[in-house]
Each structure stands twice: as C-alpha cells, then as structure tokens.
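ok so i was messing around last nite and threw this chain in just to see what happens. nothing serious, just curious
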Amino acid sequence: AQEVTGMSALVAGGVVGLIGLFNGGGRLGWASFSDFIGRPNTYIIFFVSQILAFWLLPSMKEVLMFQVVLYFIATCYGGGFSCMPAYLSDIFGTRQLSAIHGRILTAWGLAGVAGPSIVSYFHAQTGGYTASLYFFAACFVLNFIIAAVLKQYGQRKKETRTAL
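result:
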C-alpha cells in the first residue's frame, strides 16, 4: 500500500488492521450468499473478481480505491475459508469430509508460507510488487478453470443421482 499509493506507514497499518474485519465479514456474508447462489457459483465469483482485482491493484494510485479492492479481496479470503467445508460436502459427501478438509487446510497453510516467499522473490527481482500481483492473477485463472470443472462435475453427479 505504501509503495503503490504512497500512503503513510500509519495509514497502511490501519489498513492492515481493518483487513481482519473484512475477512471476518466475508466469512459470514459470502457463506450466507453461497446458500442462495450455490457454492460453485460463489467460487467462480471469487476467482473472476480476484483475477480483476489482482490485475488492477498495482495500477491503483488512489488510496480509497486501493483500500476498497484490498478489503474486497479480504472478504473473498474469509468467504473462501468459510464456504470450503460445505462445498467439499456438496461435492464429495460427508463421509471423507474431515480428511479432505484437512488436506485443504494443509495446502492453505503451505500457501501461507510460499506466498510471501513468492512476493519477496518477485520484489527482489523487479523492485516492486506488480509482477507478483500479476503472477497471483494468473494463479486465479487456473483456480477459475478448476472451479468451472468442479461445477460441471457437481452438475453431472447431481443429474446422475436424479436419474437413479
């Protein structure tokens, strides 16, 4: 935030503090919204919107717009976390839910270690954060493809159960 928008360290610290509120709000809001539109559609919205957000974030020089996009990303992070168990149950049923969810949480934790390392690498190579944000936008493209395939899988599974 300081590098892209030029905001002060004090303001940037306040932004970091508010991210937790938006993360928590996203857990409640997106989970409730997913009950109406379905988990597959919710994840597709997450990935499409985050492709755009991560792609646009490095060019946002206005502090308010930068914060709005950053807070939206935080809501998606919280929403993804809260919708995951129900989505896994929708796809695989409840029998293996705890084992599958445990693997996802392990991957999530590994991403928490790898993500900052990737950002640091790109920053060291390029002197800024733009390349790392574009890299993550590309990762969201892959996530979107996976979400679209899972949505098709879920629909076919549902059709098969209905036919039986």
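not much to say yet. The helical segments are 2-5, 9-37, 39-56, 63-92, 97-126, 130-163.
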